[in-house]
Every structure is written in C-alpha cells, then in structure tokens.
Amino acid sequence: MFFDAETREEATAFVVRCGAGLEGESTRPEQSDSGAVPEAYDEKTARRMLGNISRSTLYRDLARGRLDRVPGTRSILVTRRSIERRCRPAS
C-alpha cells in the first residue's frame, strides 16, 4: 500500500496503527491503462493490508460499516478508501 506522509515519524505511526511494516521511501507503481491505482482489493489482499486480520474480523467490520465494499459485485471487494480510513486514528 502506498500513502503520503509529511515525515518518517508520521509514516511510522500510521503503519503501527495498521499493524503493518514500513519499507521506506518509494514511488507509486506505474499506473494501469485506466490511469488509476486500484480502488478496491479482494478479501485476501484486504485482510493482509489490515494486519493479517481474520476473515471473521473482515466480515464483522464490513457488517458494522467500518469497511466498505464495492456494491454490485458477487465477490468481496473492499474499497481502498475504507482501508485507509480504518487505519487512521480517531480524531
């Protein structure tokens, strides 16, 4: 996952809240033909991005509205925006 941070401390605090690791500075990956970074992730990728949470936790967060899924799809596609929102501290 790529995100913007003003300082390394801000980046470190963000990944600690998400239960993830920090590799360091990088550039965003090449964009696809559509010109966009993926807006949603499958169930397995979303669970890994959220700190290797269980399927039960993912489905509970979806049911409680803590995460959003792409409407109109048969498979579970969790929106990138909701993953980022869940990893941010409550203000």
**SSE succession:** HEHHEH
Question: What strand order characterises the main sheet?
Answer: 1-2
Percent of sequence in beta strands: 5-15%
Which structural category fits the helices and strands? Answer: mainly alpha
Low-confidence parts: none
The DSSP helix count reads 4
Counted beta strands: 2
> What's the story with the biggest beta sheet?
2 strands, antiparallel
Outline type: elongated
What can you tell me about this protein's structure?
It is a single chain. By secondary structure, this protein is mainly α. The chain is built from four helices and two strands; from the N terminus they run H-E-H-H-E-H. The protein has a two-stranded antiparallel sheet. The mean pLDDT is 80.
Protein topology:
Elements: H1 8-18, E1 40-42, H2 43-49, H3 55-63, E2 77-79, H4 80-87
Antiparallel strand pairs: 1-2
